[in-house]
């Protein structure tokens, strides 16, 4: 039961050796799937040792589940090879698209919440899960500009329909949720409470930044800071709502020393960061 595990961390390359040497008390280690798809022997062997010591979560950025392109079977074969080798606790990616006409982009782009898009997603999720032989988790993304299309579903209704029809699970990123509320408005507490308890099986926590764009403040998901008090509050609400979800603190840019990362993760659980 993951409810009894301590907070997990996004394990990035600079910390791998230290984690193996010191074996800190970590609930799970999340790694980016793409980092290991073409990795050398030393990286793969190190992940073998990580997997023997901790539950592992594979988190991807290249699935492009909502793209109009055909599914990238070469990508899926490499992902399945990782799954077969490491038997991760979770496999996740983003509810978004990042490719078009076989060209990949460096960001995740939002999905129109329309009926035909839902049908497209359900079909693709079924194919991916059948190929991987396991359910996948799809993460809510941060958005910075309001889309100019008309949605037919609320975000929570769209997610509920996707889970019910496709049999997938959800990765709730509370920093992305916080950013979207700051950028566009909304009620994050209602969002969290509206999701079915059995749908969310992983929660991400991170810290973002503010940038000025054309004289306006935009909140951006940078994974470069400790989480804000508002995001921590949402994290604790989500942890209460989904007590068996795996919980991961992500930190990618301006990566701190491992003891600081671990202390931040623990403080987020206990609510001590101010």
From TrEMBL:
Name under which the protein is recorded: DUF692 domain-containing protein
Superkingdom classification of source: Bacteria
Organism: Acidithiobacillus thiooxidans ATCC 19377
NCBIfam families referenced in this protein's UniProt entry, alphabetically: PRK05409.1
Taxonomic lineage from the root: Bacteria, Pseudomonadati, Pseudomonadota, Acidithiobacillia, Acidithiobacillales
InterPro entries: MbnB/TglH/ChrH
Pfam families: MbnB_TglH_ChrH
């Amino acid at each position: 039961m993951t409810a009894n595990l301590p907070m997990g961390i996004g394990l990035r390359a600079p910390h791998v050796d230290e984690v193996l040497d010191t074996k800190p008390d970590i609930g799970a280690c999340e790694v980016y799937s793409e980092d290991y798809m073409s990795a050398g022997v030393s990286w793969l062997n190190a992940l073998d040792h990580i997997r023997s010591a901790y539950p592992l979560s594979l988190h991807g950025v290249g699935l492009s589940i909502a793209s109009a392109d055909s599914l990238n079977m070469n990508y899926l074969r490499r992902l399945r090879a990782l799954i077969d080798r490491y038997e991760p606790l979770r496999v996740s990616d983003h509810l978004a698209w990042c490719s078009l006409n076989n060209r990949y982009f460096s960001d995740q782009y939002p999905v129109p919440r329309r009926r035909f898009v839902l049908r497209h997603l359900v079909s693709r999720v079924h194919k991916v899960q059948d190929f991987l032989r396991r359910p996948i988790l799809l993460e809510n993304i941060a958005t910075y500009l309001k889309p100019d299309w008309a949605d037919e579903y609320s975000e929570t209704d769209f997610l509920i329909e996707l889970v019910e029809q496709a049999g997938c699970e959800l990765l709730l990123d509370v920093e992305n949720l916080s950013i979207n509320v700051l950028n566009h408005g909304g009620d994050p507490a209602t969002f969290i409470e509206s999701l079915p308890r059995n749908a969310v099986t992983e929660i991400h926590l991170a810290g973002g930044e503010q940038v000025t764009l054309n004289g306006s403040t935009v909140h951006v998901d940078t994974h470069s800071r400790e989480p804000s008090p508002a995001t921590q509050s949402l994290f604790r609400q989500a942890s209460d709502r989904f007590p068996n979800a795996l919980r991961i603190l992500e930190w990618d840019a301006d990566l701190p020393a491992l003891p600081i990362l671990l202390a931040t993760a623990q403080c987020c659980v206990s609510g001590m960061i101010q």
